[in-house]
Amino acid sequence: xxxxxxxxxxxxxxxxxxxxxxxxxxxxxxxxxxxxxxxxxxxxxxxxxxxxxxxxxxxxxxxxxxxxxxxxxxxxxxxxxxxxxxxxxxxxxxxxxxxxxxxxxxxxxxxxxxxxxxxxxxxxxxxxxxxxxxxxx
Length: 137
Fold this sequence. Notes:
This protein has one domain (2-132). It is 18% helix and 31% strand. The protein has two helices and ten strands; from the N terminus they run ββαββαββββββ. The strands form four sheets. A four-stranded antiparallel sheet has the order 5-6-7-10. Strand 8 and strand 9 (123-126) form a beta hairpin. 19% of the residues are buried. The model has no long low-confidence stretch (mean pLDDT 89).
């Protein structure tokens, strides 16, 4: 997925394989993560992914295991996410799907909801955010 403008605001939309790889390069740079491409699956069979079409490709990635500081409450609160994103220089993006925008480099982040963050002993770490750079807003 990648961010795209629609009449309803900023929403995740389908991405090319190159978009997907660029998304994780950006994720690694922004969040000091280590997402890696492990392989590609191409199949004529129906995909197990919602919305995917037969004959498409699926990227197989790996990411470091995130250990929650509190097993009972692994995700940060919305207020903690706001503080985390603002500390990185992002501003809330109106008319978006849990979106943020950083003007100085044109990075847009969507799907930044609590389920996509973990409170770890090292702080808040995100995963599976929908990112793009060079977006004009």
